[in-house]
Specification:
two-stranded antiparallel sheet; 4 helices; Dipeptide-binding Protein, domain 3; mainly alpha
Length: 123
């Protein structure tokens, strides 16, 4: 029932909070809002020619300063100018780890924990 309503755009508000970055670049979020993207049903069917045209400027752009300027303008277009999304919260986490657990990695994207170099010492 939920999936059918979502796929037929029969809803007023969407919680896109289930999407998390899977690589270290703003693109992991910014391409979700393209008019031609396949994620529209999950994120409110936002469509904007201005956003799409600005996004197209990223193609082949290797200058990171310029890319960041484009990303900033995309975010401004999406949130402030056209209000395609309205952030209402952000996620944060706290991790309490015993002092004898060494080299536990908690990446900012991808898996929640990375244990390949973790070991116990001094217990």
């Amino acid at each position: 029932m939920f999936s059918a309503a979502r796929n037929e755009d029969r809803y007023d508000m969407s919680n896109g909070g289930a999407w998390h970055a899977d690589y270290d670049d703003p693109m992991t979020f910014m391409d979700l809002w393209l008019s031609t993207g396949s994620w529209g049903h999950y994120f409110g069917q936002f469509k904007s020619e201005a956003y799409d045209n600005l996004f197209a400027q990223l193609s082949g752009q290797g200058d990171m300063k310029k890319r960041n300027e484009i990303y900033a303008e995309l975010e401004k277009t999406l949130i402030a100018k056209e209000v395609g999304v309205m952030p209402v919260y952000y996620e944060d986490s706290r991790n309490f780890v015993q002092n004898y657990v060494k080299n536990l990695s908690i990446p900012t994207y991808g898996p929640k924990y990375e244990f390949s170099r973790t070991y116990i010492s001094g217990r």
